Amino acid sequence: MKEAFVIGHPIAHSKSPLLHGHWIDTHKIDATYSALDVAPEKLSDFAARLKNGSHVGGNVTVPHKEAIMAFCDQISETAQKIGAVNTLWLQNGKLCGDNTDKYGFLANLDQQLHGWDQQNDCAIVLGAGGAARAILVGLVERGYKTIFVLNRTIERADALCQELNKALNTNALQSKNISQFNILSDHADLVVNTSAVGMGGSKFEGLSLKTLPRTAIVTDIVYTPLETPLLLDAKAQGLRVVDGIGMLLHQAVPGFERWFGLRPTVTEELRQKILGAN
Ligand code: ATR
């Protein structure tokens, strides 16, 4: 039997066991996928057990996504650019790491809005934390010419833009204070919230979607609640919206395929199952 895992600390809230469990059942694979609480000081021991073949691979979540990189023998180019690993597998005794968040973000938009990236001129990304990084790498890859990174703490946006512009060999990323949204938004094709605002129904103060082009897309990676105040506002303005649960579902696909040799699909049934567990 093949065993896979998600490690984090804490980990009880993780939806990954339900998600991978659904695909294991659907495809009748002889496998398990378990949530393991690994404290930061135990990460090194855990990595050693993995290299000894304890599992076929698994997922990594907060707070281990950066720290696990030190134990990997190979890290994909994408994970190096993002600066974090969320998927592990063993190959010829080597511990390999990838980051599938960029894939998950892009695949979700591709599935929900076919051809969404054909304008790819100007995007606004709200937030400059860990979650922003994968999305920014994805937007640069899809050819966005200008990407404004808006953050409450401008120094954090400055540092992130500087680092990623260099790593991606571009100058598309520009840091701005979040208060500048209303004056930057009239040319934006896409708005992505990667910040914690929206969780539990919290709202951005003073942010107006009225000046966005009518063709703009608004998406949020927050999915608790599924319809964040930002998405509800965008909907009320008649804009196209994409909620955050799809990114969670799609980012799981490449890992499952690596561990079990079968590419699963993101279906409406799965989406409803995960939403029902909220
Ligand atoms: P994650 O890995 O989920 O991105 P993080 O690295 O803690 O988590 O980043 C959280 C992001 O949400 C940051 O951009 C943070 O802004 P600051 O850098 O200014 O802290 C943003 N954020 C959290 N609460 C916020 C709030 N009330 N208003 C605006 N931005 C907020």
UniProtKB/TrEMBL annotation:
The active site is at K65. InterPro entries: Aminoacid_DH-like_N_sf, NAD(P)-bd_dom_sf, SDH_C, Shikimate_DH, Shikimate_DH-bd_N, Shikimate_DH_fam, Shikm_DH/Glu-tRNA_Rdtase. The keyword Amino-acid biosynthesis applies. NADP(+) binds at E77, G127, A128, G129, G130, A131, N151, R152, T153, I154, E155, R156, I221, G244. It catalyses: shikimate + NADP(+) = 3-dehydroshikimate + NADPH + H(+). Pfam families: SDH_C, Shikimate_DH, Shikimate_dh_N. Residues 244-264 form the SDH C-terminal domain. Residues 6-88 form the Shikimate dehydrogenase substrate binding N-terminal domain. Shikimate binds at S14, K15, S16, T61, N86, D101, Y223, Q251. It comes from the Bacteria. Keywords: Amino-acid biosynthesis, Aromatic amino acid biosynthesis, NADP, Oxidoreductase. Transmembrane segments: none annotated. Its EC number is 1.1.1.25. Residues 119-174 form the Quinate/shikimate 5-dehydrogenase/glutamyl-tRNA reductase domain. Pathway: Metabolic intermediate biosynthesis; chorismate biosynthesis; chorismate from D-erythrose 4-phosphate and phosphoenolpyruvate: step 4/7. Homodimer. Involved in the biosynthesis of the chorismate, which leads to the biosynthesis of aromatic amino acids. Catalyzes the reversible NADPH linked reduction of 3-dehydroshikimate (DHSA) to yield shikimate (SA). Belongs to the shikimate dehydrogenase family. This is Shikimate dehydrogenase (NADP(+)). It comes from Maritalea porphyrae. The gene is aroE.
